[in-house]
Amino acid sequence: MKIALCQTDIVFEDKEHNLKRAEELICEAADNGAVLALFPEMSFTGFSMNTDVTKDNDCVTEGRMKGLARKHGINIGFGRVEKCDDMLSLNLYEIVDPEGEIILTYAKRHPFSYGGESTVFKGGDMVKSCVIDGVPVSVQICFDLRFPGGFWKLADDTHLMIVPANWADRRVEQFKALLRARAIENQYYVIGLNCVGQQGKVSYNGQSCVYNPKGEELLSCGDSEGVYYFDFEDDVSKAREKFPVINDRRDDEWNM
Question: What does the alpha-carbon distance between residue 118 and residue 111 come to, in Å, rounded to a whole number?
Fold first, then answer.
């Protein structure tokens, strides 16, 4: 399964510009035979607390992605903001299939309180998986990476974990270290999706990457905008059979 990592320079809070740029990248990915195109967290607005601007009015973002998925015959992973009845919002990541159907919707479980995210976003309460080309796929978002419980809970139903993020450049080494750790401890592939460029006062330098179940880095995207490709071969079951670490996990591990 060929996967396209779309490492984008998100123009802050300019949804229409970013959607048009995404269409170009999705077209490029499809033309190059990608089955799945992935974008960073809050894909078309950047990491903003201004939910009056970033919210997905009438599911416009979702609708555009459904149309592009159908047009190009490709699965697309993207982030968007959804307002809730209690005036807080959800930081969502969705995957739409080539028929234009949403096959996964995940709400970030851990809003980044240090950055003020918890004042406008509430944490989701579900973990989700889907299947793409026969591969069990799950999602966690950005700050979730610092909390291994959700990754662990999904391990049985996951061979490929996607972690979209807007991860600041000053902490990018932590981003990569945590991605690698989640891959090793759960024995699945982990893809980290980051953005590049400047959003307000925060700088991003990409470094999107892929780790295998051994924690080996198979792809590093550097600090430039572009579409980067990874040919995924699902050998997760074989890796777990050869070195059955997760068989020794205890259900009460997180209650100690």
Answer: 5
Question: Rounded to an integer, what distance in angstroms lies between the CA atom of residue 217 and that of residue 206?
Answer: 15
Question: Domain coordinates of the chain in residue numbers?
Answer: 2-249
Distance CA 255, CA 66 (A): 41
Per-residue pLDDT for 85 more than 60? yes
φ and ψ of 222, to 5 deg: 70, -155
Q: In this structure, what are the phi and psi dihedrals at residue 106, rounded to the nearest 5 degrees?
A: -125, 135
CATH no. of 2-249: 3.60.110.10
**Mean pLDDT value across residues 233-239:** 97
Give the pLDDT band (50/70/90) at residue 138.
very high
What pTM did the predictor assign? 0.97
3-state class percentages of the chain: helix first, strand second, coil last, to nearest 5: 35, 30, 35
